[in-house]
Design a protein that fits this description.
Layout: E1 2-6, E2 13-18, H1 22-39, H2 44-60, H3 62-73, H4 77-101, E3 105-106, E4 113-120, E5 123-127, H5 135-146, E6 150-154, H6 160-173, E7 180-182, H7 190-195, E8 199-205, H8 208-220, E9 224-228, E10 233-237, H9 243-255, E11 265-271, H10 275-288, H11 307-322, E12 326-329, E13 344-347, H12 354-357, E14 364-370, H13 373-381, E15 385-386, E16 388-392, H14 396-406, E17 411-414, E18 429-430, E19 433-434, H15 439-444, E20 447-454
Parallel strand pairs: 5-6, 5-8, 6-7, 8-9, 10-11, 10-16, 11-14, 13-14, 16-17
Antiparallel strand pairs: 1-2, 3-4, 4-20, 9-19, 12-13, 15-18
Helix pairs in contact: 2-4, 2-6, 3-4, 3-6, 4-5, 9-10
Length: 455
């Protein structure tokens, strides 16, 4: 069976890839397990040397890998290059810090010696999405490999080239050939993989239903999982905010990756006293976005990844308008080949509408009025999601309080768009998942946090 990669910009065939047979899949898993038995005993200095080489290769190949991403899922070439470079950063970060993060920690007790040590678990399965085909993988792979685990990747079916390129990076950097492998297999086979004794843990970034399926199967087998799922990130704009800066940042966040990001801003909750001026500035910024060929450096918005995803988004817009929202910009499918959708703004959005309750995974913004700070926070938290959130205010102390104490999300930012950073833990609550990636917390997720007691 083959995988056909279609260019979302024009619907043309990019390339066809052959899927693995089930026998090949089991063979790779067996070799990954055997590799782990040796890899876990390598020194941190050796792991670090290889991970630094992986970072160098990413930087050297950033243009070619970026072009592949753009052809496979439509992100602008400029943002794809930045994504590859960010992957190099996370490789360097864990190469520099893994030994410190996983060093033995002495603990006082009644023993002559007692301490905590962090041991690798084994083969970890990663089920990853198409929207950040490199970054989503490397933020798992870099810490997992540095911790002494081996990794298997089941990537989204529309980005097989990216999956194989990531495997290539680690192989060319000098890692053991089966330390990190990409499995071009059917999604339905993930269930069987999770049931195999060699798979010790799993991580998934993706939709809620996908996360539930993986968590359910892993739960049956009592295997550790980390899930980073959807989000409907609220951005609160208070009456004392710098509206020009807030509107500009909000537009940028809404259109990042064509709006196809779990942590992209989606719900803009604005206090009524500044609702009109903010809306005018925000709509102006969305209108100024240049939708065009993602290979063109001047384009700020490419196509969506697939036409079916574009059609689902359009239906959410139509449904919201029927429910009482007003479409003040965009909202129509362009008459052109490809998965295009324009910057779209809905105003007067309220709880109960699709644009409020559901994740809008594309360049569609929902503007929601609030009477005051109290109601704005209530509206922000009125969601099944809890991945990211932001607040804009001229009072830093006020913003800090709201972010730290009031907003229900895994990452809360003040006067800035929500973003991931290797130095900071990343993950969500509620139906946005559980567990953390990145920082020292992320590398410890797939380790045995072991107590050692010496009498």
């Amino acid at each position: 069976m083959s995988l056909k990669v279609m260019n979302p910009a024009d619907g043309s065939l990019v390339r066809t890839y052959e899927q693995m047979s089930k026998e090949e899949m089991w063979d790779v898993l067996d070799r990954s397990q055997k590799t782990w038995l040796e890899w876990r005993r390598t020194s941190f200095s050796e792991r670090s040397r290889l991970m630094k080489k992986a970072a160098d290769l990413l930087r050297d190949r950033s243009q070619s890998y970026a072009k592949m991403m753009t052809l496979e899922m439509g992100k602008t070439l400029k943002s794809a290059v930045a994504e590859v470079e960010k992957c190099a950063w996370v490789c360097d970060y864990y190469a520099d810090n893994a030994e410190k993060f996983l060093s033995e920690e002495p603990v006082e007790s009644d023993a002559s010696e007692s301490f905590i040590t962090y041991n690798p678990l084994g083969v970890v399965l990663a089920v990853m999405p198409w929207n950040f085909p490199f970054w989503q993988v490397f933020r798992f792979a870099a810490p997992a490999l540095m911790a002494g685990n081996t990794g298997l990747l089941k990537h989204a079916s529309n980005v097989p080239g990216s999956a194989l390129a990531i495997e290539e990076v680690f192989r060319d950097a000098g890692f053991p050939p089966d330390a990190f492998r990409s499995l071009l297999v059917k999604t339905s086979w993930v269930d069987e993989l999770l049931g195999h004794e060699h798979i010790k843990a799993a991580t998934l970034t993706g939709s809620g239903p996908a996360g539930s399926a993986v968590a359910s199967r892993a739960g049956e087998m009592l295997k550790k999982t980390v899930l980073e799922l959807g989000g409907s990130d609220p951005y609160i704009v208070l009456e004392d905010a710098d509206l020009d800066a807030a509107a500009s940042t909000c537009v940028t966040s809404r259109l990042i990756n064509g709006g196809q990001s779990c942590i992209a801003a989606k719900r803009f909750i604005v206090v009524e006293s500044v609702l009109d001026p903010f809306t005018e500035k925000f709509v102006g910024g969305m209108k100024a976005a240049k939708m065009g060929d993602p290979m063109d450096e001047e384009s700020t918005l490419g196509p969506m990844a697939r036409e079916d995803l574009r059609d689902e988004l359009h239906e959410q817009v139509r449904k919201s308008v029927k429910q009482g929202a007003k479409c003040v910009l965009g909202g129509e499918i362009p008459d052109r080949k490809g998965a295009w959708y324009p910057p779209t703004v809905l105003t007067g959005v309220k709880p109960g509408m699709a644009a409020f309750d559901e994740e809008l995974f594309g360049p569609v913004a929902a503007i929601i009025p609030a009477r005051d700070e109290k109601e704005a926070v209530e509206l922000a938290n009125n969601s099944v999601f809890g991945l990211g959130a932001a607040v804009f205010t001229g009072d830093a102390a006020r913003g800090r309080r709201i972010a730290a104490e009031e907003l229900e999300a895994g990452s809360c930012f003040v006067n800035e768009l929500v973003k991931s950073d290797p130095r900071l833990p990343f993950g969500g609550i509620k139906t946005s998942g559980y567990g953390r990636e990145l920082s020292y917390l992320g590398i410890r997720e797939f380790t045995n946090i072991k107590t050692v007691y010496v009498a």
